[in-house]
Amino acid sequence: MRLTQTKAELRAAAAIRPRAVVMTMGALHEGHAALLAEARERVGPDGSVVLTIFVNPLQFGPAEDFDRYPRTLASDLAIAKNEGVDLVFNPSRDELYPNEPSVTVHPGPLADELEGVFRPGHFSGVLTVVSKLLHLTAPDLALYGEKDYQQLTLIREMVGDLDMDVDIVPVPTVREPDGLAMSSRNRYLSETERDEALVLYRALSAGAKAGMNGPDAVMTAAHAELEAVPSVKIDYLALRAPDLGPVIGPGEARMLIAARVGLTRLIDNISITLR
């Protein structure tokens, strides 16, 4: 495994085109390990897996946790090596943004909904860095977790609209045994807050079970779970089509939630079949 920290080093190491890339902000956990394992399986023993680690300042708002976001490079590299990563790209801020960018990616109207209501400009920052990293790593495959479902949807739209030559591969959310979606921000939770955070998955699961009775029943069941834990402050609970447009008739749908547990903001989502 090779660690690179400049664009020149990355280009030299990637003279043979890497096959798969997994983009992260570090603080790796089993969810990231699952992405890396899936990447390795898809490219096979002769392919290349590239991991990027970069805490992207463009996607953090002024009141968000950029400065305290966990940086754990040593343990990240150990996980990467264990999962068979060939190349790690860990640039500095100045390396990736030598100047304040004047050209960024406009993510379209979906970016102003759901997460975009509470994090204005977030998805412009996400798509800008994803676009840069796709150009720099030139992969055949890029793998993203379904936990960040709106992000995944917008990346798919960008790749399609801009005719980027890469396949976007979604990977299911990895959960703790009690259902909590794995997240680098879970480490911020106190023991009490972690117990409270389980209500997010309980609400999503209740909604999924109610899918046979239609959208109204889904929302009612989910809200009933959330009302039992008033200390968890809900930013949104939404039922959308798989492309995050409005639900139209029976079929597959996606329920998404964002909530604040203490000072920590968590997101999650689940696939639902509506009858």
Automatic annotation (TrEMBL):
Q: Which top EC class is given?
A: ligase
The Enzyme Commission number assigned here is 6.3.2.1
The positions flagged as active site in the entry are: 32 (proton donor)
Domain of life the protein comes from: Bacteria
Q: Which reaction does it catalyse?
A: (R)-pantoate + beta-alanine + ATP = (R)-pantothenate + AMP + diphosphate + H(+)
What processes in GO biological process is this protein linked to? pantothenate biosynthetic process
Where does this protein hold ATP?
25-32, 145-148, 174, 182-185
- Give the GO cellular component terms, alphabetically: cytosol
Question: Which residues are recorded as binding beta-alanine?
Answer: 59
Q: Which Gene3D superfamilies match?
A: HUPs, Pantoate-beta-alanine ligase, C-terminal domain
The molecular function terms of the Gene Ontology recorded here are: ATP binding; pantoate-beta-alanine ligase activity
Pathway-wise, it operates in:
Cofactor biosynthesis; (R)-pantothenate biosynthesis; (R)-pantothenate from (R)-pantoate and beta-alanine: step 1/1
Compartments, as annotated in UniProt: Cytoplasm
Q: What else is known?
A: The reaction proceeds by a bi uni uni bi ping pong mechanism.
Q: Which PANTHER family match?
A: CYTIDYLATE KINASE/PANTOATE-BETA-ALANINE LIGASE, PANTOATE--BETA-ALANINE LIGASE
What this chain does, per the record?
Catalyzes the condensation of pantoate with beta-alanine in an ATP-dependent reaction via a pantoyl-adenylate intermediate.
Summary of subunit composition and partner proteins: Homodimer.
Q: Which family does it belong to?
A: Belongs to the pantothenate synthetase family.
| Protein name as annotated | Pantothenate synthetase
Q: Which organism is it from?
A: Kribbella kalugense
Could you tell me the gene encoding this protein?
A: panC
